[in-house]
Design goal:
Layout: H1 2-9, H2 18-26, E1 31-34, H3 43-51, E2 55-59, H4 67-75, E3 80-82, H5 89-100, E4 106-109, H6 117-123, E5 128-133, H7 153-159, E6 164-169, H8 174-183, E7 191-193, E8 201-207, H9 213-225, E9 228-229, E10 232-233, E11 235-239, H10 243-255, E12 261-263, H11 269-281, E13 286-289, E14 302-307, H12 314-321, E15 331-337, H13 342-351, H14 356-367, E16 372-375, H15 377-384, H16 388-400, E17 404-418, H17 422-427, H18 431-442, E18 451-452, H19 455-461, H20 466-478, E19 482-495, H21 514-545, H22 550-557, H23 594-605, H24 611-619, H25 624-629, H26 645-655
Length: 657
Amino acid sequence: MYSLLKQYFGFDQFRPGQEQVIQALMNGHSAAAIFPTGSGKSLCYQLPALHLPHLTLVVSPLLALIQDQLDFLQSKGIAAASIQSMQSPAESAQVYKSVSDGEIKILFISVERLNSERFRAFLKKVPISLLVVDEAHCISEWGHNFRPDYLKLASYREEFAISQVLLLTATATQKVIQDMAAKFRIDLNNVTLTGSYRSNLNLSVIGVTEQDKLSTLVPWLTARLNQTQSGYQAAGIIYVTLQKTAEEVAQALTQQGIQATAYHAGLGNEQRQAIQQQFMSGQLPLIVATIAFGMGIDKSDIRFVVHYDLPKSIENYAQEIGRAGRDGQTSECLVLANKNNLNVLENFVYADTPEGTAIDFILNEINQTQGQWEVVMNSLSSQSNIRLLALKTLLVYLELEGVIEPAYSYYAEYKYKFLIPENELVAKFHGERAQFVQTIFATSDRARTWHTLNFEKMQQNYQSDRSRVLTAIDYLDQQGLIELQTKQMTQVYKVYKDKLTVQLTPQAAPEFTPQVQLRDELTQRFLQKEHSEIQRIHHLLDFFASTECLNLQLAQYFSDSNLQSACGHCSVCAGYPAVMPAVAELRSLAQLNAAQLSAEIAAKLGEHDSAILRARFFCGLTTPIFTRLKVRQLSGFAMLENYRFSDVVNWLTNSTQ
């Protein structure tokens, strides 16, 4: 273990926690590492990967941001690769071939890659020693960043017969840790928690009005950006909530003589990549970003992180400040705090809660199936008017209720074009194989350049199952004989209709059908999740306005026993607890004419009209039906975005009674 550490990484000693995790893996156990951001979680799988006989598969939430990891591993002579949509077909084919040949030790993928029937078929043929789940708190429904697809990882582990698992995260409460360990059968003795406190981060919170944020920030930034060492300009990140705020703040700072660049999901992919690369190389010292920026950023010399708007949760705050000072040097973390943004933060939560009628739509779809249900997520999201993440969560809830069970997923369409003449390609095979390949081409729907596989016609002409056709077409793609494209991911579920029939109590009303009861149970579950998220926001505000040491509060929240007393270097310890400015009162909704203001959106929604949808419209919350009907063009969109969603709903409901 120590010889590998020295040989490949050039270190004589491990950082705190690393040796314990690596030793557990070397001894054949599964493990979990809960380390602060930037404290060396990656080494916990990089080193064992050199020792383990087969592939180490790393599931990462944002594959586009792992290029630094790949560059680092390749610079150390460790064979690593990723499979991602940004690659050319030739690049992907080369990775597939290298993995098949056992030349790759570490393979990075996104969790969504596992939805691919083709990729899962490929993995089943590859021996895997270790499954690594980065940002593993996403597994837990109680985590701050729950991602439904992560729930499937435990079953994929069984499907691919992976004996060992390593879970990595920087932010997990005790409840989340226990949930993660239970799902992957990890002995709690093999869970290593090193603590969240980092003494080199100076945490500060200033209570400031929206109007005074820029005038407070500019001198603070100027002092830090002018701190140069050997001509180096300090780098920093300013986090905001909305895309338009990122643009406005970056522009305002630039006008004040501070070079700043906006970064958010509304920019093109190439533009985002270019900004990120320039920031990493030091060409751009300051990024004003939404939380689209940061995951996977491994820049060691970020000297400050500013929260211009409040973060989404304490967990998000801990992750985001964790990007500062990874080189161990003193770094500043500032929050410009007020409660003006409270309603906007809360409203993001409300936007993800589906209406009862939308849940009914899904249950009716399931009830009309004949034992199998095919789902194209984007299409179902649009039809049901449930946002994509909420829809995925709903389907997970239905899995947990035993109503549906994922069977397999596939691409509805496989297109290919020949990279060498068709007759030359067929001539590379002999006997039955040549006949099989020839039949694949002959039964395809032909066009001038791109041809589409026709599985039904293939089945009629040649007794071969779908998996053999996919294996063959995949092989031809890997060999560079064809270029393969896949479209329209379809998830197929087994359906258990009897689970829709919930046992009713004798007192139940006749119209209270089993499906209604299940709908109400699911609605209640979403409302509990909504309530939990709202509580999380208020917990965050209480944290920033507290008169108790900020670092000590963080340590207690994350079950870190290493810090037992006040840190002595946060703004509270310095004698400056944040005093939140009073929030300006909004005009009473009662003074507004709901019927008059709602006329245009009600007409546009037609039969879909409801108080909930109108409230979402007025609060500026997106939903699939709004995209379909292009309601953003209407004059009232987002006119009440600063009001609390529940207040707008009550105002609209009362006005129609």
